[in-house]
Design a protein that fits this description.
Blueprint (H helix, E strand, L loop, with lengths): L7 H30 L1 H8 L3 E5 L2 E3 L2 E5 L2 E7 L7 E3 L14 E6 L3 E7 L6 E7 L6
Helix pairs in contact: 1-2
The structure holds copper (II) ion (CU).
């Protein structure tokens, strides 16, 4: 009696794995239709609002987000960078390697920014009004 191992938990785990795979397949199947429905809207909603800093450049240089979206900059460069909005709306501390800075853009508009340490590094955040998908 005590030597019998109940195989039920193992079976349940396999079923769970199959369920996850099934859900992933469904998502993958649905994606092309979403992209066809409106590439701009899907990009704004689905892509993480992250700007990488690497090799003395912002990637992507221009990022479009919906109003209310927090944007995170991550310094993946070997040297420090400091993000500053040209209009003085937001300014980060000097970001060392792997440091991040986040700013939530509540108001629609265009926000050009630079690295205040290396002013030739330029980027722009375009904030779209929520609810205007077209
Ligand atoms: Cu810099």
């Amino acid at each position: 009696m005590s030597t019998t191992i109940n195989p039920a938990p193992r079976r349940r785990r396999i079923a769970l794995l199959l369920g996850v795979v099934g859900a992933a397949s469904l998502l993958t199947a649905a994606l092309p239709e979403l992209t066809a429905a409106g590439a701009a809207a899907v990009t704004a909603a689905a892509s993480p609002a992250t700007v990488q800093i690497d090799n003395f450049a912002f990637l992507p240089a221009t990022l479009t987000v919906n109003a209310g979206t927090p944007v995170t900059w991550k310094n993946e460069d070997d040297s420090p960078h400091r993000i500053g909005d040209k209009n003085g709306t937001f300014t980060s501390a000097a970001l060392d390697t792997d440091d991040t800075f986040s700013h939530t853009f509540a108001a629609p508009g265009e926000y050009p920014y630079i690295c205040t340490i290396h002013p030739y590094m330029v980027g722009k955040i375009i904030v779209k009004p929520v609810g205007k998908s077209s």
